[in-house]
Amino acid sequence: MPKLWNETIDAHRGAVRDAILDATTALVSEHGLLSVTMSQIAQAVGIGRATLYKYFPNVEAILLAQHDRQLAGHLEHLAAATHAGGDAAHQLETVLHIHAMMTYEHHDSALATIMHHDGARQRQDTFIQDVLRRAAEAGAIRDDMAPQELASYCLHALAAAAESPSKAAVTRLVQLTLDSLRTRP
Question: Does pTM top 0.85 for this prediction?
Answer without folding.
Answer: no
